[in-house]
Specification:
The complex is a heterodimer of chains A (318) and B (666). Chain A has 318 residues and is mainly alpha-helical. Chain A has one domain (2-316). Chain A has eleven helices and one strand; from the N terminus they run H-H-E-H-H-H-H-H-H-H-H-H. In chain A, helix 1 (2-35) packs across helix 9 (221-246) and helix 5 (125-156) packs parallel to helix 11. With 666 residues, chain B is mainly alpha-helical. Among the domains of chain B are: 281-546, no CATH class; 618-665. Helices cover 69% and strands 4% of the residues of chain B. Chain B has helices spanning 2-22, 28-51, 78-101, 114-127, 131-149, 156-184, 191-196, 201-219, 228-234, 237-262, 268-291, 295-322, 326-361, 372-375, 377-390, 397-410, 418-449, 457-460, 467-485, 487-493, 495-502, 529-551, 576-579, 581-591, 618-638, 646-665, and strands spanning 59-63, 72-76, 555-558, 595-599, 610-614. In chain B, the strands form two sheets. In chain B, strands 1-2 form a two-stranded antiparallel ribbon. In chain B, a hairpin with an 8-residue loop joins strand 1 and strand 2 (72-76). The chains are: A mainly alpha (318), B mainly alpha (666). Chains A and B meet through helix 2, strand 1, helix 3, helix 4 and helix 5 of A and helix 16, helix 17, helix 22, strand 3 and helix 24 of B. Strand 1 (58-61) of chain A pairs parallel with strand 3 (555-558) of chain B.
Chain lengths: 318, 666
């Protein structure tokens, strides 16, 4: 019986994140538009875009290789698996032991590796510029993320996300300096990883400022739909991650009753709304950075994360 | 089974002189590499079966060669067996690859006699149980590989590489000689006697530093790495694979054998030194790699990175062992050994890939390649696997060993020494940086040479390489995947090694649910490569079939979009150096003192604009160049001794004799 419940819970989680990811993106877009006093596209527009793209023919460059056609599926699958291992409304994920936080980040790293390769496959200048900048950003964002994970894992005594979330929800944590630093670092990394302002602009097609959009320039149809969906999933992953580590209240435990599950789910939607709203406010209130300012921005995250880890090494209570 | 091992080594040694004769024969190289393939397979199988037959593992043998009063001692224990597997797996793959690749060799006589001798020497280093045999085999290994580095001696670059290599190899052997001299002062040259002796703390400290210099210079630790990126690429590709994938591991073996086995219990500052060298080696190695445009040189620099990761693991193991936490030391040590194995697999694979590209196009320069995925499809798949694995991405094997290293780092707040507490987080940060750079570096390598459009005619007219080479590459690629999705098997196989060296083992892995690996406890961390692989495969296929079934599966081919301005000229693509420009700008200004000089002619001038990048190797300029200057200065001064009259020479000899006699008398 419990095995069935676990499988159901894992399945529910996987379909939940898949269903919810476009909505979160739509919500952030809507809020941004309202903040700029525009009406903005409807909340459900990302779903319509995805369906429209999936129905269209793929127009493939003559020179594209088989790898170019496989990569969207690989990216989507990698991101989907990663996001379904992050606890959302409940902790007791059946397969949470499959990959710990380090492995989840590495899975996203695999997705990015393939995406950067895709940018170079057709052999255009724009693809190259996107890939080259993406790996530069990743070369700072990934270590910052990993060290943030170190500091969180040392506080919780585990890199296993279910245990981390459970520990963060318990009374044993309290306010810590290192956690505060880790939070800021994780937020900066999340902005960079999801190609948000000030690192990249998700709405632009102005060639010289774009990173993510330049890499996927040659994609169309169902391939583009999958890539869009995986970036939406990635945004959801980071928001859920921040929610489950730094706002752990109300996450249902493994053996919770149905009522607790429902309340956990409602609280989860609440957290997503708040974090999505904050993201939109943040994005409208600052300007995009020049490409070579980004390393300083991410360097700050790296230093903060390193300081947080060092604090843990030096003192057990900070 | 040590007898089988020694007989196989004897076969390899016998093949060496046969190589001289065979090199004149048109099918000679096939016979020779076939012989090497059989001998290394026999050694590999013997070592593997020994590794799994723990109770009967340790065996010794003494042969009446070498020093008359000593003989040559050989011993097969868990550590030797594991390194025999690594060496001979590399040997099997390289010989198989060479069966096909050797037809590109225009002067086989310069490679064939040395190749089996080189393999034999590496095996003897691993089997030796006395300092004399160890050092002789070590030097033999250096010399035979040097001979193959300068096999294409008409290129000035290779000759210089050979010269630097010879100098550094002599330096390494000298420090090892001194280390063994110190150890033997109380015990003699036999390893068993050294193990039983109790050297003083000051002496062991000096031995550790000397061994780190000696083994580190062979392995390529920064700042002793200068020879490696010159020498490894200069050799024929299968030998490059062996040098990078296997010989650096033999150096690691030397370090582990002396520091973990022959010396008594470690002291905490040993680990400090190793970590302070290992972490920067990892990051600097891959940063150098990112700046290169020669495929084989990228791979050689990336070897330095991986050696850094291995030594970081060994440093952690020393730290934990010194503080009595042997269960964590077992984790760190197993991580390092697993990375030894993994790196031997993917680095050989990538060098073979580079060799296949070199054979098909005659080019090592990435700026002249491109689009090879269309012309060399199978090579492209194998190299892609190697690139993912070396970038430490799941579900391949490189990730597992780095993950285990990170798990050991996460346990280091338990250490009590403050020095270690402060540097281990920094070393963790350096490893994380190295992992991210590695991914960038291999996106560049693969993206520039295999993807995109061909940048030269030779790249456009390349053909797939031969079957033997492909088999060797695919075998290694399959092993990379296997070690990535079933890491538990490999961790368990390493248990006797870790038991011997650090006195404890990681928990038994095989038999856990779904073959998960759990280094300490399930509540702490776990990883299941098999399930990650299956989930990704399943989700990807499900998505593909659902979309093709319910949405659309139509596809049209047309010209590239490129924002509406597609340019048919392939030079419009990003090149290797432009790809690494952002990283060069961010990190290079400090690490390489990089300068970008743009010359724009005045508006009316017909002169072309020029752009120049200057990179400096600060370690070379700051360490090697001054030493070279000092030596040059000193030799200039001493040079007058060459032009003395016979009378003065006789006086000098007489004075020297008197001084020596006085020294002996006092």
């Amino acid at each position: 019986m419990s095995a069935l419940r676990d499988i159901l819970s894992q399945g529910a989680q996987m379909s939940l994140v898949l269903g919810l990811a476009p909505l979160l993106t739509g919500f952030v877009r809507k809020v941004k538009a309202r903040l700029l006093r525009r009406r903005g596209p409807p909340l459900l527009q990302p779903y319509r875009d995805l369906i429209r793209l999936m129905r269209k023919d793929v127009v493939l460059a003559d020179n594209a290789s088989w790898l170019f056609r496989v990569i969207p599926y690989l990216m989507f699958a990698g991101t989907w698996v990663a996001v379904s291992l992050v606890p959302t409304f409940g902790n007791g994920l059946l397969f949470s032991w499959t990959a710990d936080l380090i492995a989840i980040i590495a899975l996203l790293g695999s997705a990015r590796f393939f995406q950067a390769l895709a940018g170079m496959d057709v052999g255009t200048a724009f693809g190259g510029i996107g890939s080259s900048r993406e790996v530069m950003i990743a070369s700072l964002a990934e270590p910052a993320m990993l060290i943030t994970v170190f500091s969180v894992a040392m506080i919780a005594g585990s890199t296993q996300l279910s245990y981390v979330a459970e520990f963060m929800g318990s009374d044993a944590v309290g306010l810590r300096v290192s956690l505060g630093m880790a939070f800021v670092a994780l937020t900066i990394v999340a902005l960079a990883e999801n190609a948000r302002i000030p690192v990249d602009n998700p709405a632009t097609h102005l060639e010289l400022t774009m990173v993510h959009e330049a890499m996927v320039l040659e994609y169309s149809g169902r391939h583009l739909a999958l890539i869009d969906l995986s970036s939406q999933l990635k945004l959801l992953l980071y928001v859920s991650l921040i929610a489950c580590v730094f706002l752990p209240w109300g996450t249902a435990t493994a053996d919770a009753s149905v009522a607790r599950l429902v309340s956990g789910a409602l609280l989860y939607f609440g957290k997503l709304t708040v974090l999505g709203f904050l993201l939109a406010v943040f994005e409208t209130s600052i300007a995009k950075m020049r490409v070579f300012r980004i390393p300083e921005f991410l360097g700050a995250a790296l230093m903060l994360a390193l300081l947080a880890t060092l604090l843990r090494f030096v003192s057990g209570s900070l | 089974m040590i007898a089988v091992a020694l007989w196989s080594v004897a076969v390899l040694l016998a093949l060496a002189p046969a190589g001289i004769v065979l090199s004149r024969h048109p099918r000679g190289s096939i016979i020779l590499y076939g012989g090497c393939l059989i001998a290394t397979s026999a050694l590999c199988i013997t070592a593997l079966s020994d590794l799994f037959d723990v109770p009967h593992l340790t065996q010794s043998a003494t042969l009446p060669v070498g020093l008359p009063w000593l003989g040559a001692h050989f011993r097969l224990d868990a550590l030797s067996a594991f390194f025999l597997v690594v060496v001979n797996l590399g040997g099997v793959a390289a010989s198989l690859f060479a069966l096909g690749y050797s037809r590109h060799e225009d002067s086989p006589g310069r490679v064939l006699p040395f190749y089996p001798a080189y393999l034999a020497a590496m095996n003897v280093v691993v089997l030796a149980n006395d300092a004399f045999s160890f050092l002789v085999a070590w030097e033999f290994m250096s010399l035979t590989s040097w001979a193959m580095v300068v096999s294409h001696h008409r290129e000035a670059e290779n000759v210089r590489a050979g010269y630097v290599y010879l100098l550094m190899a002599s330096f390494g052997t000298l420090t090892l000689l001194l280390a063994f001299g110190l150890l033997a002062s109380g015990a003699g040259y036999d390893f068993d006697a050294i193990r039983a002796s109790h050297p003083s703390a000051a002496l062991t400290g000096m031995v550790v530093i000397l061994v780190l210099l000696g083994a580190g210079s062979k392995a390529g630790l920064v700042p002793l790495h200068a020879w490696l990126p010159l020498a490894h690429p200069a050799a024929p590709s299968h030998v490059s694979g062996l040098m990078s994938g296997v010989m650096t591991k033999v150096a690691v073996y030397g370090f582990v054998r002396i520091v973990f086995d022959l010396l008594p219990e470690p002291v905490w500052w040993w680990s400090m030194v190793v970590l302070l060298v290992g972490g920067p080696t990892a990051t600097l190695g891959v940063l150098y790699a990112l700046m290169q445009r020669d495929i084989k040189r990228v791979l050689a620099y990336s070897t330095i990175e991986n050696i850094g990761i291995i030594f970081t693991g060994l440093g952690l193991a020393l730290a934990f062992k010194a503080e009595g936490l042997d269960w964590v030391a077992a984790l760190a040590f197993t991580a390092a050994m697993l990375h030894v194995f993994n790196h031997a697999l993917f680095k050989s694979l990538l060098f073979f890939g580079a060799g296949a590209v070199l054979g098909a196009t005659g080019e090592r320069d990435m700026e002249k390649l491109g689009g090879l995925i269309h012309r060399m499809p199978t090579t492209a798949v194998a190299v892609l696997v190697g690139c993912i694995a070396i970038s430490a991405l799941p579900p391949f094997n490189g990730f597992v060993s780095e993950w285990l290293t990170f798990q050991a780092i996460l346990l280091s707040p338990q250490l009590s020494s403050w020095g270690l507490k402060l540097i281990i987080p920094a070393v963790g940060g350096l490893l994380a940086l190295a992992a991210a750079f590695a991914a960038a570096c291999f996106v560049k390598l693969y993206g520039i040479s295999f993807l995109g459009r061909p940048r030269s005619d030779v790249a456009a007219s390349a053909h797939e390489t031969d079957r033997f080479s492909l088999t060797a590459m695919l075998m290694l690629a399959a092993l990379c995947l296997l070690a990535g999705i079933l890491p538990g098997l490999f961790i368990d196989a390493l248990a006797p090694v870790s038991k011997n060296m650090v006195g404890n083992v990681m928990p038994h892995q095989v038999g856990l649910q779904w073959l998960t690996i759990v280094p300490i406890a399930e509540s702490r961390s776990s990883y299941n490569g098999l399930l990650v692989f299956l989930f990704v495969a399943l989700c990807g296929t499900a998505a593909a079939s659902a979309i093709h079934r319910f949405a659309s599966d139509r596809l049209r081919r047309t010209a590239a979009w490129d924002c509406g301005y597609p340019d048919p000229n392939p030079t419009i693509q990003y090149s290797a150096s432009s790809f690494s420009q952002p990283i060069r700008r961010v990190f290079g200004s400090v690490v390489f003192a990089a300068r970008e000089i743009g010359e724009m002619p005045p508006p009316s001038s017909p002169l072309p604009a020029r752009f120049q990048v200057e990179l400096r190797d600060l370690i070379w300029d700051g360490l090697y160049a001054p030493i070279a200057i000092v030596i040059g200065f000193a030799t200039d001064r001493i040079n007058i001794l060459q032009f003395l009259s016979i009378r003065r020479y006789l006086t000098l000899v007489f004075v020297a004799l008197i001084v020596l006699l006085l020294v002996v008398a006092v």
